[in-house]
Specification:
It holds the Pfam family DivIVA. This is Cell division initiation protein. By secondary structure, the chain is an all-alpha fold. It is built from four helices and no strands. The N and C termini lie far apart (167 Å).
Length: 187
């Protein structure tokens, strides 16, 4: 059983012969009661303070636990975010590479088609040029082999041409030659 200041104050002692002075005992008990009462109050206050501090400590420990969990969650979220960002970056880079390769392949194919078309046109032009030069050469050779000079060629060409319907030549009586010669036989 815990002793309280009231217990000390109400304590009565038996009287005995040649015992202690009653007045001194009462005075001493009064001092002890006051001291004990003071200590008892301090003890109660300290107990309440300890209780309050324990509650605060518990709150702080719970807060610390909550903060640790929050930090762990934040770190995990940051790691997830970083990992997702890295994954997304890799996907974007991969997609860009694929698109770039597709664009390069299309450009190369287009370049090959254009190059092939260019070579075809170049070959066709060479063929045309060769044929045209051959044609011109054959015409020159024909003219040279005919042994005609310019006037004879014009006369032959005019003689082979039918000038019907022109002035003075309705019946084919030579009016055409006059028309070509202009009426002057100096050719």
């Amino acid at each position: 059983m815990t002793l309280t200041p009231l217990d000390i104050q109400k304590k009565e002692f038996r009287k005995s012969f040649r015992g202690y002075s009653e007045e001194e005992v009462k005075d001493f008990l009064e001092k002890v009661t006051q001291s004990y009462e003071k200590l008892y109050r301090e003890n109660q206050e300290l107990k309440e303070e300890i209780k309050f501090l324990r509650e605060k400590l518990k709150e702080y420990q719970e807060l610390e636990t909550t903060l640790k969990k929050a930090i762990i969650l934040a770190e995990k979220a940051a790691e997830d975010l970083k990992r997702n960002a890295e994954r997304e970056k890799e996907l974007i880079i991969k997609d860009a590479r694929v698109k770039a390769e597709e664009m390069l392949a299309k450009a190369k194919m287009r370049c090959d088609v254009l190059s092939e078309r260019y070579e075809e046109i170049k070959a066709q032009f060479q063929l045309f040029k060769t044929r045209f030069l051959n044609f011109l050469q054959s015409q020159i050779d024909l003219i040279n082999s005919a042994g005609l000079d310019g006037e004879d060629y014009v006369k032959e060409a005019a003689a082979g041409h039918d000038f019907e319907g022109e002035e003075g030549g309705e019946n084919g009586d030579g009016g055409g030659k006059e028309a070509v010669g202009g009426g002057d036989n100096s050719l």
